[in-house]
Amino acid sequence: MRLNLTFFLSILLTLGLLISCDDAFLDTNVTPPEEENPITPPEEMMPSMTAIVDGKDWASNAVGALIQVNRIGISGLAADGSSIILSLEDMGEGNYELIQNGLSAGAYTEDSNGDSNAFTSNASAKGGFVNITALNWQDSTISGTFEFVGARALPAGEVDIKEGKFENIPVRTELTAINDFNKISVKVDGDLFEPVAVLGQIDPFSNAIVITGTAAEGVPSVALFLPKDINEGTYELGTPGLADYGGQYNISDTQFLGAESGEVIITKHDKSVRTIEGTFTFEAAELVGEAKASLTEGSFSVTY
């Protein structure tokens, strides 16, 4: 149960890179310079995501999709900061059932700044579906439909999403750097790991700061889970979901290692501009399985 939640969080973090990366997350309201795009595509070919959320029309003004390590992620961000994220365990066309505690799931957040928890289909017994009707590898676009009921514990509630549709959303298969400030480096079993994509964000589930660094191919990845109000100081690390301060290392899409011991040292945290810096080290092991990893000489500086 905790393993499934931890895995789903890691997928949302990967999709968060789409929302934060300008060249990966397409703003459909911005017209490129004339010399770069002299021909405007027909309206029916423009990327979009729409739905009815609790009886009200919802539409994205920015969209993105990512396919990596046997996962499909599709995201839409509206002008009011709300977002819909679809995370699917596979890589092809067809119907995906969204069930309680499942690894394919839909999520809805009311804002993009971490001030509210997410509604998710895998927290609801009512579930839903995603139907990928077209995955065009030649044009690198994806289209389909979806519906789901999402639930959350705090504050308790549900959201009903109907008549969802996404069309011609551009698909990426590799992650890229987000900005020049965000950096993570760490030695894993003595070998230096410098992730290409480094992201800091507020986790919509726990309202904690999550710092993640991911290779271009999606794995391996490293993550730290920290309280939103953390101050400068030294803190013991444990497994995310089981400890207030968490460390995680993902070897692959099926092997997730949580910190058994270790520490994170916060050297600077400016809450007004949302930047945080520090160092870390931890010994990691699978919750289920025998894989282990030693992460040493870790450092990070990110915005969130």
SSE string, helices as H and strands as E: HEEEEEEEEEEEEEEEEEEEEEE
Count structural domains: 2
Rg (C-alpha, Å)? 19 Å
User: pLDDT below 50 for ≥5 consecutive residues: which ranges?
Assistant: 1-11, 20-35
| Number of alpha- plus pi-helical segments | 1
- On the 0-100 scale, what is the average pLDDT? 84
* Largest sheet composition: 12 strands, mixed
Helical amount: under 10%
Number of strands: 22
State the end-to-end distance. Answer: 28 Å
Shape: globular
- Structural class comes to mainly beta
Strand content: over 45%
What does this structure look like?
It is a single chain. A hairpin with a 4-residue loop joins strand 10 (128-136) and strand 11. This protein is mainly β. The strands form 2 sheets. Strands 1, 2, 3, 4, 5, 6, 7, 8, 9, 10, 11 and 12 form a 12-stranded mixed β-sheet that branches. Strands 13, 14, 15, 16, 17, 18, 19, 20, 21 and 22 form a 10-stranded antiparallel β-sheet that branches. It is globular. It folds into 2 domains: 25-172, no CATH class; 183-303, no CATH class. Helix content is 6%, strand content 51%. The chain has 1 helix and 22 strands. The chain starts with a helix and ends with a strand. It has one helix at 2-20, and strands at 26-27, 48-53, 56-59, 62-68, 71-77, 83-88, 94-98, 105-109, 119-120, 128-136, 141-152, 157-172, 183-188, 191-193, 197-202, 209-214, 221-226, 233-236, 246-250, 256-270, 275-286, 292-303.
Give the topology.
Elements: H1 2-20, E1 26-27, E2 48-53, E3 56-59, E4 62-68, E5 71-77, E6 83-88, E7 94-98, E8 105-109, E9 119-120, E10 128-136, E11 141-152, E12 157-172, E13 183-188, E14 191-193, E15 197-202, E16 209-214, E17 221-226, E18 233-236, E19 246-250, E20 256-270, E21 275-286, E22 292-303
Parallel strand pairs: 4-12
Antiparallel strand pairs: 1-4, 2-3, 2-12, 4-5, 5-6, 6-8, 7-10, 8-9, 10-11, 11-12, 13-14, 13-22, 15-16, 16-17, 17-19, 18-20, 19-20, 20-21, 21-22
